[in-house]
UniProtKB/TrEMBL annotation:
Domain Transketolase-like pyrimidine-binding stretches: 296-460
Keyword Coiled coil: no
Physiological role: Catalyzes the acyloin condensation reaction between C atoms 2 and 3 of pyruvate and glyceraldehyde 3-phosphate to yield 1-deoxy-D-xylulose-5-phosphate (DXP).
Cofactor section: thiamine diphosphate; Mg(2+)
Taxonomy, superkingdom: Bacteria
Pfam families: DXP_synthase_N, Transket_pyr, Transketolase_C
InterPro entries from the UniProt entry: Dxylulose-5-P_synthase (IPR005477), THDP-binding (IPR029061), Transketo_C/PFOR_II (IPR009014), Transketolase-like_Pyr-bd (IPR005475), Transketolase_BS (IPR020826), Transketolase_C (IPR033248), Transketolase_CS (IPR049557)
Taxonomic source organism: Mesorhizobium retamae
Lineage of the species this protein comes from: Bacteria, Pseudomonadati, Pseudomonadota, Alphaproteobacteria, Hyphomicrobiales
Annotated binding of thiamine diphosphate, by residue: H59, A100, H101, S102, G132, A133, N161, Y263, E347
Annotated protein name in UniProt: 1-deoxy-D-xylulose-5-phosphate synthase
């Protein structure tokens, strides 16, 4: 075991290393800075990777990465082919469990603890979970399940820094504050809870409901609580972890830390340093420019839109599951504090809360990332769609998000939403259309979703005027001049309209901005199939079950046969990296769309000329579905991406 002085020296170097690395690449910073000492202490006390440490979310795991053989690779963080920004089992044996969506760590570590008991092994499991992550139902499901199992050996470390991305919210936050206020910071011994009080009893005792006059929520649940301990004080932390290491029962160690600790700009503004881009650590982040940049992000478009609607209509309320900044609700909350609901990390609740508002005649807008709406899927169906409740879903980060990688890609929403009855699903081609679609959704007397990508669009700045779009009607943007031969029609959804138009100029194709994934403009699809030789769909989402599949189903329903090419995200997870590079690798930029169509048409021509069997099929215009785009992951594996 390394001496305490050495551990302190390691912590100092680790913090400097972390700051240097993240300021050079961008990534998650303030959470990692806050757990430097905790990371050092855990690795000093536990025998990793034999003992398992499961980092919840994993955005705080960079110090752990640096300590576990990845120091030199930190410069590749979140870039194509480089280190993941989250724990990854594929990356290191020290990453016990892949995480990135929050609140999974206790469940995963509990599963591991069960296997250890079943296998009669001498190993330990630790889940490190933040106070923000503890607002999600999943975490409570795990705690509830873990409690009262004295035979298990599981340590849950609650890293309480009072912060989610924004300041933590809710009753739990208040409860943690009360514990700290009433008990003070403990340094071991009886005041720390039952576990350390009975260190002489190596088997430990299970927490008893109401055992202490100021029982914590955790004790009331049946966990063995220890703390609160200063998470930056290695002299307190290390002995405490040593004391808890071999104890049986589900132990909860309450560690208090400061997000951004050790780098003053991040301590003062942990929100901005949660996930900064590159910056000079000597200077810090540049203050946000007061004037608007020429191109707005879709998030900013949403932000302006909801403020405008709220000024017009008092029934408009906004709900965010802990993504106030990322979803563009800071200004709205500032202007309408009593109409903005940050519910913490609680996506399921966010959706159903919207249902409650809608049932009473309000117009709730649930602002949510595509990837996080996956958590609220049953609520979307059961609580909203079945009852046709007018909830607007403003779905940000739909499509390829980039550096956060496979866990955060908004690849699935079109597929998982278009099968839900009563739900309207829109995908804007540009910023102005985004605003009009959000307005359309809000006016619609039923649930409606608008899915838009991370970052900026083509730059078509939104009109101040709001006009509802006719529901289920696409927009023909370009008509091919070709009279016969390969008359190609490109049916583009959302962000694919722009590259489709560029490709269409080169190959002379018709382009439709489909606008609606659901209800689909079936007439338009069928007309284009009947007047063209080849139909191509393009979407920034998974091909399987996605918008292109909707078009195919529309043709099948009327027995219309047409060679059909579906462009989108192939059946694989998209790795992390620069979004433009990832889109290009998926064949979803103008060059890729053009190349895929040329290949497809060539293939059809060859088949028509060479192979009698296929020619017969083609001449009878039997539907030919072809998708040849390589997956992005396979391109990265082949080293084909720069
Ligand atoms: C299910 C889910 N919702 C939202 C997020 C986005 N998110 C990432 S970190 C974070 C804050 C987590 O707070 P906490 O667990 O306390 O960790 P801290 O950053 O404070 O260390 C949020 C909301 C997520 N990763 N997963
Ligand atoms: C870890 C996490 O889930 C978030 O911090 C996420 O990385 C934010 O992504 P954006 O940068 O797209 O808001
Ligand atoms: Mg926190």
């Amino acid at each position: 075991m390394l001496g305490d002085t050495v551990l302190k020296q390691i912590a100092r170097e680790l913090r400097t290393e972390l700051l240097d690395a993240v300021s050079a690449t961008g990534g998650h910073l303030s959470a990692g800075l806050g757990v430097v000492e905790l990371t050092v202490a855990l690795h000093a006390v536990f025998d990793t990777p034999n003992d398992r440490i499961v980092w919840d979310v994993g955005h705080q795991s960079y110090p752990h990465k640096i300590l576990t053989g990845r120091r030199g690779a930190m410069k590749t963080l979140r870039q194509i082919g480089g280190l993941s920004g989250f724990p990854s089992r594929a990356e290191s044996e020290y990453d016990a469990f892949g995480t990135a969506h929050s609140s999974t760590a206790i469940s995963a570590a509990l599963g591991m603890a069960h296997t250890i008991r079943l296998n009669r092994e001498d190993r330990r499991c630790v889940a490190v979970v933040g106070d923000g992550a503890l607002s999600a139902g999943l975490a409570y499901e795990a705690l509830n399940n873990a409690a009262l199992d004295p035979g298990l050996r599981l340590l849950v470390i609650l890293n309480d820094n009072g912060m989610s991305i924004s300041p933590a919210v809710g009753g739990l936050h208040a409860h943690l504050g009360n514990i700290l206020a009433s008990r003070g910071m403990c340094r071991g011994g009886a005041g720390c809870g039952k576990a350390l009080q009975s260190l002489s009893d190596p088997k430990g005792t299970q927490g008893e409901v109401g055992a202490s006059p100021q029982a914590t929520l955790f004790e009331a649940l049946g966990l063995i609580y220890t703390g609160p301990v200063d998470g930056h004080d290695l002299d307190a932390l290390v002995p405490m972890l040593r004391g808890l290491r071999d104890r049986q029962g589900v132990q909860l160690l309450h560690v208090v830390t400061r997000k951004g600790y050790g780098y003053l700009p991040a301590e003062h503004d942990p929100v901005s340093y949660h996930g900064p881009g590159k910056f000079d650590p000597k200077v810090g982040l540049k203050p946000a420019v007061a004037s608007r940049p020429p191109s707005q992000t879709y998030t900013q478009v949403f932000s302006d839109w909801i403020c405008d609607e709220a000024a017009r209509d008092k029934r408009v309320v906004a709900i965010t599951p802990a993504m106030r900044e990322g979803s563009g609700l800071v200004e709205f909350q500032h202007r309408y504090p009593d109409r903005c609901f940050d519910v913490g990390i609680a996506e399921q609740h966010a959706v159903t809360l919207g249902g409650g508002f809608a049932a009473e005649g309000f117009r709730p807008v649930v602002a949510i990332y595509s990837t996080f709406l996956q958590r609220g899927y049953d609520q979307l169906i059961h609580d909203i769609a079945i009852q046709r409740l007018p909830v607007t879903f403003a779905i940000d980060r739909a499509g390829v998000v980039g550096a956060d990688g496979p866990t955060h890609m908004g690849a699935f929403d079109m597929a998982y939403m278009r099968c839900v009855p009563n739900l309207i699903v829109m995908a804007p081609a540009d910023e102005n259309e985004c605003r009009q679609m959000l307005h359309t959704a809000l006016l619609h007397d039923g649930p409606a979703a608008v899915r838009y990508p991370r970052g900026t669009g083509p730059g078509l700045l939104p009109d101040a005027e709001l006009a509802a779009l006719p529901i289920g009607v696409g927009d023909l943007k370009r008509v091919t001049k070709a009279q016969r031969g390969s008359r190609i029609a490109l049916l583009a959804f959302g962000s694919m309209v722009k590259p489709a138009l560029v490709a269409a100029e080169r190959i002379d194709a018709t382009v439709a901005n489909m606008r609606f994934v659901k209800p689909l403009d079936v007439e338009l699809v069928q007309d284009l199939a009947l007047t063209h030789d080849v139909l191509v769909t393009a979407e920034e989402g998974c091909i399987a079950g996605g918008a292109g599949s909707a078009c195919l189903e529309a043709l099948a329903k009327r027995h219309i046969l047409c060679p059909f090419l579906q462009l989108g995200l192939a059946d694989d997870f998209i790795p992390h990296g620069d979004p433009a590079g990832l889109l290009a690798a998926a064949g979803l930029d103008a060059d890729g769309i053009e190349a895929s169509i040329r290949r497809f048409v060539e293939c059809l021509d060859t088949a028509a000329q060479g192979d009698a069997g296929i020619a017969a099929v083609m001449s009878s215009k039997t539907m030919a579905v072809s998708h040849t785009t390589p997956t992005v992951a396979s391109a990265v594996r082949r080293g084909g991406l720069q």
